Amino acid sequence: RELDFGAWDGMAPGDVEGAALARFWDDPDGHAPPGGECWSALVDRVSAALHDLAARPTLIVTHAGAMRAALAVLCGLDHRQAWAVDLPYNCLLSLRVWPGEAPGRRPTGQIAGLYP
Q1: How far is CA 22 from CA 14, 68, 71, in A?
Q2: 71-90 pLDDT tens trace
Q3: Beta-strand pair 92-98/108-115
Q4: Threshold 0.85, pTM exceeds
Q5: Per-residue three-class SS string for 19-61
């Protein structure tokens, strides 16, 4: 699932109050959308899903936000770095994932390909 944008869900960025949107982009944990989800909650959800993946090639169809959260988890990117990755509509992001070795340890990975 994509980040829960709460009251902003379904709104075009231009329809959201500019200062509130700027605060969110600057600090998505400290300034989540009203009634929405903070960035770290999305990262935690995606991390749990990645941890539960079977060790075989798997196709996951999802939104760019979840893809960016996967990059944060697997490649250690912060929110600015993850959001700087251009993920156009209908792109294919291929990731090589290594499971966490110890209980509770996050998996790691690398970008294997990005196809627009």
Answers
A1: 11, 19, 22
A2: 999 999 999 999 999 999 99
A3: antiparallel
A4: yes
A5: HHHHHHHHCCCCCCCCCCCCHHHHHHHHHHHHHCCCCCCCCCC
